[in-house]
Amino acid sequence: MTDLGWWGVPLGVLGGALRVSTPFLFVSLGECITEKSGRINLGLEGIMVMGAMAGYAVSLASGNPWLGVLAAGFAGLALGLLHGLICNLARVNDIAVGIGLMLFGTGFAFFLGKPYIQPKAPNLPAFSLGGWSELPQVQAALQVSPLLLIGIALAFALAWALCNTRWGLVLRMVGDSSDAARAMGYNVNLVRTLATAAGGLLAGVGGSFLSLYYPGSWTEGLSSGQGLMAVALVIFARWNPVYCFYAALMFGGAGSLGPALQSVGITSGYYLYNAAPYVLTLAIMLATCSPTRTLAGAPGELSIVR
Amino acid sequence: MAEEGIMMRMKPAQPVLPDHALGLEITGMTKRFGAFTALEEVSIRVAPGSLHALLGENGAGKSTLVKCIVGFHPPDSGQIQVDGHEQAIRSPHDAHSLGIGMVYQHFTLVPSMTVAENLVMSRGDVPAVLDWSKERARLAAFMDTVPFRVPLDRPVSQLAVGEKQKVEILKQLYLQRRFMILDEPTSVLTPAEADEVLGMVKGLARAGQVTVLMITHKFREVTGFADEVSVLRRGRLAGSGRVAALTPAQMAGMMVGERELPQGRSQDDDAVQASLPRAQGTDAAPRLVLNELVVESDIGQPAVNRVSLAVRPGEILGIAGVSGNGQRELVQALVGQRAPRSGEIRVDGTPYRATRAEMRRHRVYSLPEEPLRNACVPRMSVAENMAFRNFDLAPLASGFWLRRGAMLAQAARWIGEFGVKTRGPGAAIGTLSGGNVQRAVLARELSWPVSVLIVANPVFGLDFAAVAEIHARILAARAAGAAVLLVSEDLDELLELSDRLVVISEGRLVHETATASADIDVIGRCMAGHGAEHQEEPA
Known about the structure:
The structure holds 2 protein chains of 2 kinds.
Chain A: H1 8-36, H2 44-62, H3 65-88, H4 94-113, E1 127-128, H5 136-141, E2 143-144, H6 146-164, H7 166-176, H8 178-183, H9 188-212, H10 226-236, H11 241-255, H12 257-263, H13 270-274, H14 276-288
Antiparallel strand pairs in A: 1-2
Chain B: H1 2-7, E1 24-33, E2 36-46, E3 51-56, H2 62-69, E4 77-82, E5 85-87, H3 92-97, E6 100-103, H4 115-122, H5 132-143, H6 161-174, E7 179-183, H7 191-206, E8 211-215, H8 219-225, E9 228-233, E10 236-242, H9 248-256, H10 268-275, E11 288-296, E12 302-311, E13 315-320, H11 327-335, E14 342-347, E15 350-351, H12 356-362, E16 364-367, H13 371-374, H14 382-386, E17 397-398, E18 401-402, H15 404-418, H16 434-446, E19 452-456, H17 464-479, E20 483-487, H18 491-497, E21 500-505, E22 508-514, H19 520-529, H20 531-535
Parallel strand pairs in B: 3-8, 3-9, 6-7, 7-8, 13-20, 13-21, 16-19, 19-20
Antiparallel strand pairs in B: 1-2, 1-4, 4-5, 9-10, 11-12, 11-14, 14-15, 17-18, 21-22
């Protein structure tokens, strides 16, 4: 095995970006859809963990990891729908419901997931983009999951759809001016419920990536706040799906800085380097937010910008 | 929920829109909100192809009436006949499929979407996937048939109020509505633009393409453009008839009825005095000075570009201009809502940053435009809103504690003095009508000795009694020695009130004149000078 020396760090970061970014990408795309409709779903963390558990369980039972992904999507859809329906009631605050859902989702997943901590379920396949290289490290780093490619395609498709399809424009209309949408005869609550359910579906799929690909097993500390960070990610991606992809890559890269440095022997600040994504979040927020300008692209009906 | 389910039309059937101007007859329409009767037995007939004006003071029920027609509020009783057939209009969708549309006073455009997206989405029959090249060609062809231009690719949030209003009217034309309700359509337009829009609307009516019902406060527009007029007072029909057969005095009589004029009119005498030509030669030092002030817009462009001006005590300086030329940002900088990029503001010779302490020390007060948004917290009570200037001072506060009794007493006193119509000092200020919100803010800002007064579009959307009252109060403040900066999009208002006029265009002051020797043509040209650029923004 060839020693890459310091080259191992950028390679590790790149590999990490490709691996770790996928759940960020799915969850942020889901949150993007939900927020475009004018609601915030803070429960994505819970939905994600629920998706991870459901995906792992079904994969174990059926032997087919793709059925697991499907099950994770359904679990997410159901929880998203629950959030959407509760928020349809009068005087219900979406943020409070989201926090409730986050706690419910994680707790319920741990409860149901107890039997799945030990057994090993079949994982999702991967293919390598590093076949051109002789180096096993490069080949290992450039392993990607088909889910990442699906996510990237989804980001671009979503960006296109928001400007070029009726449902995309209706979604933006509902999220930006519910009065205008009502005046056009659109059912604001229905659109928002569907958007939250769709967001839940994507978050569930993102969760299944955690348990079925990387790290690839079901544990209780699986998500570690990635669902919450996706909310911040959507804000600094300015509610633009393609930017969500770039932001997810950046978060993924930052998240793997610690392990990459560890691989070349720097272990002293391991936990500090692991905080890189969070530091990055704060730094980008500071750099891009301005007291004199409103957040460009923020849906007008979001309770945080109103 | 159930009702909304019915309204939901993801794939609406293409309604068969009428191809001629619609006639409309309302009989015995009544609408109550709780114990409050907003409309009582109102009957109005609007002939096809006519331009029908709906006059009335604030709170007279005009908005309620038209909202009943377009299905926003279901009426408690009464019928609507469209072209002689009785119709049940239960939702805006029902109204739209009959060819009835409305331009609301509050904009209904989606701010983050571009003008083109807004227009296309306003159609019921948007295909699942949009072919933008085809839509663009359609829009371009449509734009050739209308007498004004708007930037199709700009998000609506970046348009000035005047431009938004144009897009709203455009939308109705684009949707081929045959009965169009306009809620004060010209309040944000320059007189020339207003004449142009109303002339065009009237031309469409003449040609039998559309029937227009227009809510307005301006007699000039009624006499100049309307065929018929109906007047509402306190929810009842006070009179109606052909405009040609009525004088403005008769219409005003129907509007006001035999009601007493609100209190505060006692200041009229001062106002009359103040509006007389004053002794010239005020050599007093300027009280408000702007020096090369630059203020950026929301998108970081210089909206106010190196503006310098000076206002002396006892003088009203008017700033004229088409909306969206930097007036909003200028006022925001002066009242402390927006930090200037560079340059300085001086009050009484010292730099001024619009902090609360400085406002108090220099006695700077303001009447910003859209007072509910810029000067009030809608969900707080009238009394609390009225106390924003002095809630933390004696007698409303003693040390750490607020004294609610004193606050309520102050509010009760001002409600009486300024004739604010409210359920009481404890009502949320957001529930008041526009004129009464403005009166409440006036009370808060003008019940003190005022040294500098910043005023922006103070009578936007108000009825004529409120207009006269607010103008009188501004003149009284001037007579008492205040330096008044009056920003208005209504040139007549500026000519009536101000001593000196400057014209702002593209964020720069392009013209200055004494009002007495003002040349309207020159002012108009300066206002419009760079207007064309402003409207034609490249994609």
